[in-house]
Amino acid sequence: MPQDQSMANAFVPGQAILSAGDEALLQRRTDTLGPAYRLFYEEPFHPVRGEGVWLYDEEGTAYLDAYNNVACVGHCHPRVVEAMARQASMLTTHTRYLQNNIVDFAEDFLASFPDPLSHIMFTCTGSEANDLALRIARVKTGGTGVIVTENAYHGVTIALAAMSPSLGAGAPKDENVFTIPAPTGQHGEQEGEIMRANVEKALATMAERGIKPAALYVDTIFSSDGIFSHPKGFLKPAVDAFRAAGGLFVADEVQPGFARTGEEMWGFIRHGVVPDMVSMGKPMGNGYPVAALVVRPDVVAEFGERTRYFNTFGGNTTAIATAQAVWDIIRDEGLLNKTLETGSAFRADLESLAREGDVICDIRGSGLFIGVQIAGDDPRGRTARLVNALKKKRILISASGPGGDVLKIRPPLAFGADALDFFMSGLREAIKDI
């Protein structure tokens, strides 16, 4: 299998010595799952158990998970497991029956969003939520044109793969998809005006081709583009320009949502904009497949009149019970404030480390979503070596950005001071090792 150029730390068969058991499992995986799947790390990781911020291999060795936002409140959180099991033991059914728990959760959850975002539609995955947003946008606007950033990732359906340049050349965008550069974080207060100008340029190209705008999709911390969070508010001019042309703004909160950025529950809030639709996915059920699209009533009204929405597993009773447990934990354990505090300490430690040498050239992000730009003649290769060196130190992270030269640090929100000390000690050693 050739090396995947879209993954800086992809596993390449034949370049690592694996145990006999893992070698046999790898062969069985290839034989059954086929050629499209990818593994992380030079030497693949084989976890068998998780707890909090730790994953354990077959020998019981603990690895610090500094990458997994899916288990946002920590792996196998007992309250999540209990809520899931309790509801599954009573009833799991779809949304076409009257149920208390889906309405109770919807009311509770929607209270975290600004007006007029007051409807919620449940799906199983973030991809489904983003796909549903596209369908609604096309009906509301009558347009088909979409703008995304140059290394965005929004999902795996046929429509969304064409809107996800980070998937590489194997998923080419179609004629209705237009890309703009992501912010660079290098232009200060001009960042917003530069992004607005790029949106207007894409809109002009759309108009030349007779394409009417439908949706501007933005992951509000630009996760796949390299993680860009500052200055606050830089997204607003671009959104204003796109709305002036008749399009809708979709805030993709699959990665930056659920207290991840520390300052606000949702990434879009720090930009001073209210989206037309907000998609969310993985963290909502801490690993259980539940996701959603929050939408303005006026945006979804015509779609609802034309089309009945139904998703057999989206919003099923067990999914909702699980999502409610996750939501309760985020609030009861004060994870928004803890994320801000731990993230601030994390940034300070990284900045101190950066001053000690020439490996780190920039640190970006907010809360527990941090991007560390790696310098050097071969930053991609150096980043991959660091990711794999950290894995040998029992620390799991990955890489981001179009050049694969940004350490992507995005641990469960249960990450605390002890985990931070373990991480920083391992990172210092890994930098020396490479």
TrEMBL record:
Keyword Translocase: no
Lineage top rank: taxon: Bacteria
Pfam families per record: Aminotran_3 (PF00202)
Transmembrane feature ranges: none
Keywords: Aminotransferase, Pyridoxal phosphate, Transferase
GO MF, one annotated term: pyridoxal phosphate binding
Cofactor(s), names only, from the UniProt record: pyridoxal 5'-phosphate
UniProt key word Zinc: no
Stored SUPFAM superfamilies: PLP-dependent transferases (SSF53383)
InterPro entries noted in UniProt: Aminotrans_3, Aminotrans_3_PPA_site, PyrdxlP-dep_Trfase, PyrdxlP-dep_Trfase_major, PyrdxlP-dep_Trfase_small
Gene3D superfamilies (UniProt xref): Aspartate Aminotransferase, domain 1 (3.90.1150.10), Type I PLP-dependent aspartate aminotransferase-like (Major domain) (3.40.640.10)
Family: Belongs to the class-III pyridoxal-phosphate-dependent aminotransferase family.
Name the record gives this protein: 4-aminobutyrate aminotransferase
The organism of origin for this protein: Cohaesibacter marisflavi
